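Chain A, query sequence.
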Amino acid sequence: MSRIGKKPVPIPAGVTASMEAGTLSVKGPKGVLTMPMSDLISYEMQDDGLMVKPANASKAARAFWGMQRTLVQNLVTGVTEGFTKVLEITGVGYRANSQGKMLKLQLGYSHDVDFAIPEGIEIKTPDNTTVEISGIDKQKVGQVAAEIRRWRKPEPYKGKGIKYRGEYIFRKEGKKK
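Chain A, predicted structure.
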């Protein structure tokens, strides 16, 4: 029994949700997000928000229940507040600079890395070692952050690389002399 799934997803003022042709569409001040609705889950609008319930008693429907409710909550949060991931760059000479629709990364390679910023994503560089990725789609924001981080993952000996803000890098000891 899903504890998360039992709670209705509150729809704040200024946000509208509509269900038509197997698609859930949520419209808010930051934009519009859509999600295909699962046949295993039933969605219904109530006074206190959008209720997500399993359509039948099958094991698959119960397994999908909490996840589908969380996906609906992510749609509502995305169109009201948006999502942000912050990357921190550590290393001598490592830096980032956002130029229009490109993010230029200098990560110790013999060439600069040019990362094309996808549609719906905004990247800011408040300083040379911080990259802020924001957008309304949580999955897309996380995917872009992971793709940027993949260029130089943090290494355990000196701690150099690109890490998420708040991520702890377990440091290894060097050779004993």
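The mean pLDDT is 92. The chain has three helices and twelve strands.
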